[in-house]
Amino acid sequence: MGMSAGDERAASPRDEEWPEAEKAEKLARGAALKWASGVFYRPEKLEGLGHYRRRETQRNNSIQSRLKSTVQSYLEGVSAGLEQLRSAAQEVQGVCQDLGAARWALLDSADHFQGLQQMRKLMEEHVQLASVVQVLPQIFSVHEVFSHILQLLHGQRLLEAHVELMMVEQLRDDILSQLHLRGLSGAQATVLSYFSGLQDLNESLAKQLWDIVGSSLRLVREDPVLFVTAVRIIEREEKIDDALLLEATFLPPGRPKGWRQKFYQVLQDTITGGRFHAPRLDAEGPGLAKHLAALQKDIVSELLVVKDLMVQCVPAHYNILSVCTATYHQALSSHLQEILREDLDKQGLFLLLEWALRVYHSPEMMAHPDLLPEVDVSALDPLMSSELVDQTERRYVMKVKASVFEWMQRTLEVEFKEWFREEEPETDHEGFFQSALPAIVMQMLNENIQVASLITDSLQHKIYNMALEELEAFLGRLREALVQCGKEHQQDRAVPKYYISHLLAVLNNNLALSNSVSSLHPDTACREVPGSLQAALDRMQKKATQLLLEELLLDLQPLCLQLPSRKWLSGSQLVGSMCEVIDKYAKDFSRVRKPVFTLLLAESELLVANQYLRALLQRKMVCKSREERGQLCHRLLQDASQLRELFCGLGLDRGQQSLEAVFALRELICLKDPALLSLEVLGFITKYPDVSDEHISTLLDIRGDVSKEVRHVVLEMMAQHPQALPEGYRPIFSTILVPVPELPFCLRKGKCA
């Protein structure tokens, strides 16, 4: 069970070489000791000790047998490997001996190699000489081939001519390539001189090709074979160019020819040459319209030929339809710019804008059903740039403006010629005076705005703004003409005969213009009249109203001159005569529409009240007694009541009348106690804030019973209560100037000397 000291010493060298074995042995010993201790501690298990010994003996024998077998197999393999190594070493030694022998053999034959090299050079020269001998017949026949090619070209047998031309070129290029490799530049010059006829033949062939391409639109319809032949030749040359450029070792003279690029250039020149570089055309009206119509027809028809026929005659990568479309587009763009350099009239500018912005993109031209969807100009630049469109629109607006000005001026002249005819102006179905002026002006402006809407919204707005400016200027000229006519009428009131009727027609016309201006706006949702134009309309109405009131004033003034007077005070029919004049004018005023008629009544009533008060204040009559004051108050009451009833009967409400000032003035005169005048005057100036000290002083003078002290109190009260004019107040007294009284020198707040 244990190990002796000799065994341990014998195992120590092995353990030093194999530490794993030592570890395994220790584990085995530990397991054995553990098992043995278990057996000896339990005597009943000692009976199985013999059985255990036999089983362990068998297992050890089995393990030893497998180990012997494994070691034997390993030793046999090592023996076989050693035998193979021995055999390989012998073979390597034999190879080394053979290589040494071959080395000595090569060293012995080195002198013979120089002879072989010379033989190789002779062989190369022989091969070159043989190749030269082979091409000699072709070289000698070059000029004969040149003549034959020329005959083929004259007979338009282009494909055959091109085949022979390529053969001669290939022969020349091969010779030149050999000379180039050998660096024989002098010989190259000789070869080029010998083949110099090739250049003329190439030029002759190219000329025929470009003539064919130049007639391509006709040939694809009549004889497409000739055009296809030209394209095939161009493609052959293009392939040769590509191959030579890829090699990049030797580029023969005249290469690359670039015939495909030349094809595009000739085709583009054909499209643009005869049509877009024609002699100067008549750019005015009908001439330009015919020219644009011809362009439209020709371009559509030629693009249809390209799309339906030419596309089938060229390779797909030519993109011939796109190229032609872009060429037409660019040529048209340049051509339109050339036309715009001319001094076009408004008709020409309109035609050009309409054609470029509407017709060009319509189904009548580039959106033609037969061209879609292959033809698409939306990806190209605009035919006219936005800057050029804006510039052209402004030129068109200026031309239209000049035309509108001329037309309006002529309308104005015709209008005032009508004034001097021996008949009243025309009337509408309701009997209101009118003339054709508003209809003519609005129709002219509206037509120009509507025509502009056919082009672009921006042009329509430009024309609209121009129309408003011209209408405003026209109203200014009409007003000036009215002023001049009024001055002439003042010199001879019999001319024109129906002066008042024409003024009333002017008011109706002005009202019609005011009502129609909003309809000019392109946006139906925006109907506001610009402030400056409304101001011009108001000034026009004010001037016509003023001229009418001047006529009324001229007829009223002889009657007003009789105010005040003793005769008037005693009960004359003076105001009755004034009412007759007013009624006569009111009947004339009824020939204008109601808004203006009401205005005329109000202004007439203000005029009458003003003139009545002016007569009282400027030609003051001093009452000498209470009876005279009563008589004056009675007359004022009768006159004011009669005039008020007249205007009420004409349709003017009392609240709109200024005659109330006469009633208020009467109350001041009728007041029995002068001491109460200060309170009465305070109420008066509060109601009529434009009354001055002079007006009140004159009224006190008319009473004839106001002392200096009362006058001083009244004027002092007015100084202490200054009045401001309220908004919307219609002045009555501010236009009435009264004579300045001759007062002694004094200060306002002191006592007079």
Automatic annotation (TrEMBL):
<dbReference type="GO" id="GO:0000149">
    <property type="term" value="F:SNARE binding"/>
</dbReference>
<dbReference type="InterPro" id="IPR042532">
    <property type="entry name" value="EXOC3/Sec6_C"/>
</dbReference>
<comment type="function">
    <text>As part of the exocyst, may play a role in regulated exocytosis of insulin granules.</text>
</comment>
<keyword id="KW-0268">Exocytosis</keyword>
<dbReference type="GO" id="GO:0000145">
    <property type="term" value="C:exocyst"/>
</dbReference>
<dbReference type="GO" id="GO:0006887">
    <property type="term" value="P:exocytosis"/>
</dbReference>
<comment type="subunit">
    <text>Interacts with EXOC2, EXOC4 and EXOC5; may be part of the exocyst.</text>
</comment>
<comment type="similarity">
    <text>Belongs to the SEC6 family.</text>
</comment>
<feature type="region of interest" description="Disordered">
    <location>
        <begin position="1"/>
        <end position="23"/>
    </location>
</feature>
<protein>
    <recommendedName>
        <fullName>Exocyst complex component 3-like protein</fullName>
    </recommendedName>
</protein>
<dbReference type="Pfam" id="PF06046">
    <property type="entry name" value="Sec6"/>
</dbReference>
<dbReference type="GO" id="GO:0030133">
    <property type="term" value="C:transport vesicle"/>
</dbReference>
<dbReference type="InterPro" id="IPR010326">
    <property type="entry name" value="EXOC3/Sec6"/>
</dbReference>
<dbReference type="GO" id="GO:0051601">
    <property type="term" value="P:exocyst localization"/>
</dbReference>
<keyword id="KW-0968">Cytoplasmic vesicle</keyword>
